[in-house]
From TrEMBL:
Keywords: Signal. InterPro entries: Cell_wall_mannoprotein_1. The lineage of its organism: Eukaryota, Fungi, Dikarya, Basidiomycota, Agaricomycotina. The keyword Signal applies. It comes from Mycena belliarum. This is Hydrophobic surface binding protein. GO terms for cellular component: extracellular region. Residues 1-19 form the signal peptide. It comes from the Eukaryota. Gene3D superfamilies: 1.20.1280.140.
Length: 181
């Protein structure tokens, strides 16, 4: 009886520990999405502010550096989502809602980067459009991996909605990549 009691005590402690770890991981994923939201907004604002002509190399490199930071954040967030495992219903809904909220900003940034291509091409450094193309490709890869991890861990009833968001966002990169290719 004493051994059985110890077993249940150990099992209870392990269960509580696991629940706390999963809770922390979900909190980390939510924090990652908040950081991604801030970085996407910063990137979109920098692209919007870049003029069609007469822009500066410093402003163009700021856009590049912001994109590079976003790629790093997306890669870290992908690792966090993967290590968290399947999300519960409430957390899955919260995460999906957060991603849906930044979708218009992502789409706006990708539309504007195409519109601003003449401004980047007019700068005295010839390789800038190629640098932007590389950033776009890397952003698409990182975004796709993050979205794939989210879909894989979404509750079953949210998978289709998550896939729709994933498809919309990753497909939005194609016209931008084509414009700079």
């Amino acid at each position: 009886m004493v051994q059985l009691s110890r077993f249940f005590t150990v099992l209870s402690v392990a269960t509580v520990s696991l629940a706390l770890i999963v809770g922390r991981d979900v909190a980390k994923v939510k924090a990652d999405i908040a950081t991604i939201t801030t970085q996407v907004t910063t990137l979109d604002n920098a692209i919007q502010a870049f003029p069609l002509s007469g822009g500066s190399l410093l402003n163009a490199l700021t856009i590049h550096n912001t994109a590079t930071g976003l790629i790093t954040t997306l890669n870290g967030a992908t690792t966090d989502v993967t290590s968290t495992g399947p999300l519960g219903e409430a957390d899955g809904r919260a995460v999906l809602t957060s991603v849906e909220a930044i979708q218009p900003v992502i789409l706006d940034a990708l539309t504007n980067i195409v519109v601003k291509k003449p401004g980047f091409a007019s700068l005295p450094i010839g390789g800038l459009p190629a640098l932007i193309l590389q950033d776009l490709k890397n952003l698409k890869t990182a975004t796709s991996a993050f979205a794939t991890a989210l879909v894989a861990n979404a509750p079953a009833d949210l998978v289709e909605e998550a896939k729709t968001v994933q498809t919309t966002i990753t497909n939005a990169f194609d016209p931008a990549i084509a414009a700079y290719s």
